[in-house]
Design goal:
By secondary structure, the protein is of the alpha+beta class. Helices cover 66% and strands 17% of the residues. The protein folds into two domains: 92 residues, Ribosomal protein S16 (S16 Ribosomal Protein, Chain: A); 60 residues. A five-stranded mixed beta sheet has the order 4-3-2-1-5. The longest helix has 95 residues.
Length: 191
């Protein structure tokens, strides 16, 4: 029986996540499996990988094959490096302590890269939100200036209208007063 470590699709349309399973190569993709050794969620940034590395290494040591994506996941998690180092220990090329030290150094470098990427993503998100807030503040200030200008123009127009109305009223009063003075001397000669 040929055994393969591969992905089993779950989730919904356009939002899939995967279980990492050990299955018979003849079994359907989402069908029966021998053992589930982890999960992979590509929807997050960076992708979330939960893997039982000891079980994956045990299956690789007994001859399980991997699919292309699972091989990359195992490489990313360091399982293939551990297998390589264990082969070196078995051949006597290096000691177990040297293999453990090499793996620990590699793990520290990988964790540093992951943390740097997460910090970069968080910083980019913070910068983006800060830029959006500044842009929004600028737009709000421009709107406030436009409203203040429009309000000042409306007040100026109201003041001009009031002055025009006052001038018109004064002109009407002056015309009425002039008309009274013109009628008053005309009434006196008749009397």
């Amino acid at each position: 029986m040929a055994v393969k470590i591969r992905l089993q699709r779950h989730g919904k349309k356009n939002f899939a996540f995967f279980h990492i399973v050990v299955a018979d190569t003849r079994a359907p993709r989402d069908g029966r499996y021998i053992e589930q050794i982890g999960s992979y969620n590509p929807n997050t940034d960076p992708a979330t990988i939960v893997l039982n590395a000891e079980r994956a290494l045990a299956w690789l040591n007994v001859g399980a094959e991997t699919s292309l994506v699972v091989r990359r996941i195992l490489s990313y998690e360091g399982v293939l490096l551990r297998k390589h180092l264990q082969c070196g220990v078995a051949k006597g090329a290096i000691t177990q302590e040297q293999a453990d030290k090499k793996f620990a150094d590699w793990k520290a470098q990988r964790d540093a890269k992951i943390n740097a990427k997460k910090e970069g993503i968080a910083k980019a998100a913070a910068d983006k939100s800060k830029a959006a807030a500044e842009a929004e503040a600028k737009v709000n200030q421009e709107r406030a200036e436009a409203l203040a200008k429009k309000k000042a123009e409306a007040e100026e127009a109201a003041r001009a209208a009031a002055e025009a109305a006052a001038a018109e009223k004064a002109a009407q009063e002056a015309a009425a007063a002039e008309a009274e003075t013109a009628e008053a001397p005309a009434e006196n000669p008749e009397a």
